[in-house]
Amino acid sequence: MKLSPKGAAKEALDAIPGLPADLRAFLEQHDGGRGKVGKQPLVLWSAEQIATEAQSQEVSLSTPGLLLFGTDGGAEAYGYLARLRQRRYGRIPLIAAGVHEFEALADSFDESVEAIPLDALTRGGPWDLLVNATPLGTREAGPGLPVPASILPKVAHVYDLVYNPPTTPLLEAARRLGKPTTSGLEMLLHQAAQSFELWTGRAPPIEPMRRAAKEALG
Fold first, then answer.
1. 159: domain CATH number?
2. How many whole angstroms separate alpha carbon 179 and alpha carbon 41?
3. Which candidate, 75, 79, 95, 100, places its Cα nearest to that of 161?
4. Mean pLDDT of the region 16-25
5. CA-based torsion, 195, 199, 205, 210: positive or negative
6. Measured between alpha carbons, how far is 69 from 85 in angstroms, rounded to an integer?
7. Domain count, the chain
8. Which of 112, 146, 161 is the last residue of a domain?
9. Do 86 and 65 reside in the same domain of the chain?
10. Number of neighbours of residue 170 by Cβ within 10 angstroms
11. Of 22, 64, 85, 138, which has the fewest beta carbons less than 10 angstroms from its beta carbon?
């Protein structure tokens, strides 16, 4: 797991209501990071992000007592649900309707996170699919590759969930090797399409939505 080298400030941690002790201890050492929960990616928010963004998500309103602390980089979040007697750490869709959609995973934060050193990737493979669920490549995070460039020849397809900019350093590197790629625009598009259908009950106009998104992103 790639972790922030700095810990969160006490003031930022104190601003998070219901923060469990083991997650607080982790954030005191590492204020955010990226890794995996089993085989699924985890983008762990900083303490400041947890305090602000977690409560702004729709699922927080529909699931009282749920504390979100990160996402899979896509449509699912990771959270802590204190009301459960065991396995309080779990996964839940960001558009979940309530607690019944909470997938319990572990009893403690440490148990739920699997750290895989990057150098282990260079010794592994080949892989059918590489998915970037980190912020690297966004305009805010700046350029960079989320994995060593040496593993790209061993990947059959590269999917970058970043959609702004539409072409990221990862996609460029993969295309230079002749690899098929998919940008995060498709994820954004189909999340919006599903929301459109849920709210209106009508089939979403996929192609007009795709064209509008491309125009908006330049």
1. 3.40.50.720
2. 22
3. 75
4. 90
5. negative
6. 19
7. 3
8. 112
9. yes
10. 26
11. 85
Region 187-214: mean pLDDT is 91
- Predicted confidence band of residue 8 (pLDDT cuts 50, 70, 90): very high
Least confident of 28-42, 54-68, 179-193: 54-68
pTM: 0.49
Q: Is the pLDDT of residue 59 over 70?
A: no
Same domain, 93 and 130: no
Long-range contacts of 149-154 (CB under 8 A, 24+ apart): 149/173, 150/122, 151/121, 151/122, 151/124, 151/125, 151/127, 152/177, 152/179, 153/177, 154/124, 154/125, 154/126, 154/127
pLDDT at 203: 92
Same domain, 13 and 40: yes
DSSP annotation of 202 reads S
Average of per-residue pLDDT across 38-52:
85
